[in-house]
Structure formats: structure tokens, C-alpha cells
Amino acid sequence: MSYPGRRLPFTVEVGKHGEPPPLNVSHLSEGRIVLIGGSRISGTYELRQEITFVDEGKRWENEDLYSKLVDLNSNGVPFQFQPREMGSPDMLMAWWQEIGKIKASFKEIFWRSPDDWLLTTIEPPVIGMRGWTGPKPFRC
Rounded to an integer, what distance in angstroms lies between the CA atom of residue 20 and that of residue 91? Predict the structure, then answer.
């Protein structure tokens, strides 16, 4: 993960081997925030929830999506690390931090293997930290 302007080292919590992951924001899909977590049974997580949002316009400008992701964050729900999906919830949370819309940290969940996961706390960026000069336009 490469989040500009954040202080290093990041705070990382390591899940115990075999411990099921917490309920987390997996991805966005056609007006739905998809959450998964818990034990895997035949490749499927036992916990799965969907929260609908008004899917109109650009995701990073969508106030309904923003308010629902902020609410999940305030309840301690982590966001899956999705490095290849530019409109992913973790990227949106980082962007909103960068432009000052979110002043709080968020947790990101990252898998090293199906039974091995980490939670990383992503703090808001600071101008000048690690050469960061401020937000760039969101690319999606």
C-alpha cells in the first residue's frame, strides 16, 4: 500500500492464524456496499451483508455512498485493500482523507493468504510528510 503523506510506520494488528476476519467492506457493486467476514464455509464467508446506496454520478462525489462508508468506519468496520480497483471503498476513504473531508483514521484489511489477515490503521495525511504536497485529482 502506498498512501502519500502518512506517517510511518503504520499501526498493524495481525489476526491469529485460523481466526475468522471481522465483518469488512469487501467492494461496491451496482448500488450496493458488500460486506463479508467470519468463517469460510466451502469458500464462502458466513457473514455477508449488503447496504444499498444511490448509485449516481462519480463515486468520489456521491454523498449517499460517502455517508454510509463514514458510518461503517465510525462503527469500526475495516475496508478491504483493493490496489487494482480505483473506485474501491479503501481508495475512496483515502481520497476523502486527502481532501480533508474525513479527518478520522480508517482500518484496512489485507490478506496474505485465506487464513492470514492484517488490519492496518490509515491515518489522515499531513502536508510535507514524506514529500506529500497535497491531493491530486481522483483517477477512476
Answer: 24
